[in-house]
Amino acid sequence: MPSAPHPDPPQRLARALEGHPEPAVAARWLAELPELRERALAHWGLTAERVVSPGGRGSLVMLVRRADGTPAALKLAAPVGGTAREATAREAAALAHWDGRGAVRLLDARPDDGALLLERLHGEVSLRSLAEAKATLEATSALRRLWVAPPEGHAFETVEKHTAAGADRVRAGADADVRPLVDEALAARAALVADPAEAVLLHGDFRQGAVLASDTGRTPWLAAGPEPLVGERAYDLARLARDRLHDLMASGGAAAIARRRLGKLADALDVDRERLRGWTRYRAVESGVRHLARGRRAEGEALLEFAGWL
Predict the structure, then answer these.
(1) Based on C-alpha coordinates, what's the Rg of the chain?
(2) CB neighbours of 8 closer than 8 A, spacing ≥ 6?
């Protein structure tokens, strides 16, 4: 099968890799990307069509066709937040467990190459294309299907362990002017993990942009790109609670709207309001400090202002 021209990574992925904590690792993956791509195409007998753009910040996704002509998507994970092999193995395990219930269906995986073969969704059309009320309704519907008991003997990281590393980074990297907010967020996280509410399989990075349009016939919207963890539902919902943050900040009475949104989400999914508030505040502070450390001041300050509203 003839090789297709090597596509450049989408700009969103390239920008994310520019901020990689280990530049040499990112550069090596980019250099190896054409070989990884060709190896996956050959192994699965795929014909490349085009790269999905703008795509994600942690992988290159290419639309392909299988040998029998059926459409699919090839995902090649970048070494963001750990090795590509580990992230791919965790994502494949979660997708296999969900088996298409609320999430994209896994067709095959090659964790050593960071490669996943997935059913094709409409990657350019996410819930962000809908009005907010409708998007929220569809998002909560997807979460109800995703929150299931994890498989026996699973190797997924717990929310407690995952957030411990983030908490250490926040504690070490926070400037003095945000220290009171950081201390409150860290105290909330410590109290939450000390008294865990439940242990279900979580998406880990659930937001409107991670739920894509589908014509599979199962449901019109399916989640993609999980960073799976095991823990309480409030942790997953906390990321969704700050969706469309820039739109929220531009509206009048943004702080009150943010608090009402938390209440509505908690009630819609039967999640404890205070636990959701605690996780939402912690996750916003952790993300805000991380953005500031990478020189993304506007994004970091917006996240910390949102956390302060709660």
Answers:
(1) 19
(2) 14
Q: Which of 98-102, 174-178, 251-255 has the lowest mean pLDDT?
A: 174-178
Crossing angle of helices 179-194 and 159-173, rounded to 10°: 160
What is the value of pTM for the model shown? 0.92
Report the distance separating Cα 284 and Cα 150, nearest Å.
26
Q: Give the domain ranges of the chain.
A: 11-120, 124-309
What token pair was written down for 288?
Answer: 């805000």
Please provide the CATH number assigned to the domain covering 124-309: 3.90.1200.10
Strand order in the sheet with 122-126: 122-126, 211-213, 221-223
Mention the CATH class of domain 11-120.
Answer: alpha beta
Report the C-alpha dihedral over residues 211, 166, 178, 56, rounded to 10 degrees.
Answer: -30
Spatial strand order in the sheet of 115-119: 47-51, 59-65, 71-77, 115-119, 106-110
Q: How confident is the model at residue 9 (pLDDT cuts 50, 70, 90)?
A: confident
Q: Which candidate in 205, 236, 267, 270 is catalytic?
A: 205
* pLDDT band per the 50, 70, 90 thresholds, residue 2: very low
Instruction: Give the count of beta carbons closer than 10 Å to the beta carbon of residue 53.
Output: 16
On the 0-12 / 13-18 / 19+ scale of CB atoms within 10 A, 256 is exposed
CA proximity to 287, closest of 228, 232, 224, 239: 239
Q: Say whether 272 is catalytic.
A: no
pLDDT tens string 82-98: 678 899 999 999 999 99
pLDDT at site 119: 97
**What is the percent of the chain where pLDDT is above 90?**
73
